[in-house]
């Protein structure tokens, strides 16, 4: 039997599709209201805000989820048979602060990967925070549309094989590009009732989609061999654990594989397919990205303090690694505490 807190969580399962029919699940289960065919609002006692769904062009839909929830709801998106993927852009703070008890740090940092590309064939679950604004910009993109952007560099046969849902799964997480972040933040501050909102939304969607294609070309294919929902979920748990340990030393692949319930070889293989780096490379990269944020925060007296904060006992070694990653020394990004 679960705890009282677990029993208070309202659990909702819903479909997702390239048309507006999927919203019927929210109407039936939560009493949601559809307004002007675009907006969907939840009952006032559940959440304030709305979602906004619109077709931008054939094969490309945009969905904004903008709610502040008053009650805890667990949303489970069921596996879809449609040949499309969902691209998530989370505009919550990239580095969030939280209290850490029993450690040498008064305040801990948890980094987030704000960009996710998930095959619609995968089941996924999320629980939004209560009392905090959730703003998520999502693209629903047909695989046939994506194919058109890879045909110049790949043969038609290779493109068809790559996007064959019977053999491969789209799954990728990364950070949001700064150009995309700026475009989405401008949209975030625009009223849904503005006469120019729909026009602005279309323009931002095309811009974000263009940035996404560029990023996919830069990072390589976001296609992996078929993976099970269980394996993906278990590896994602270890990734989230790593993001919470950025001030500490790398915990080791053996521990991570044990957490995932896999052999070291299987775990390492799946992790690299999903995140394009080995677990240790991924951890070091995220640690350096956190350091970059802290260097420019103005909260530290010198660079050594930042090095210690992200778990480096030797500032010189920290500076060397930072230079290798960003092609500049930490002093370039450092802003001293005033």
UniProtKB/TrEMBL annotation:
GO MF assignments: DNA-binding transcription factor activity; sequence-specific DNA binding
Database matches in InterPro entries: Homeodomain-like_sf (IPR009057), HTH_AraC (IPR018060), PchR_regulatory_protein (IPR053142)
Keywords: Transcription, Transcription regulation
A Pfam family of this chain: HTH_18
Domain HTH araC/xylS-type: from-to ranges: 236-336
Top-level division of the source organism's lineage: Bacteria
Name this polypeptide is given: HTH araC/xylS-type domain-containing protein
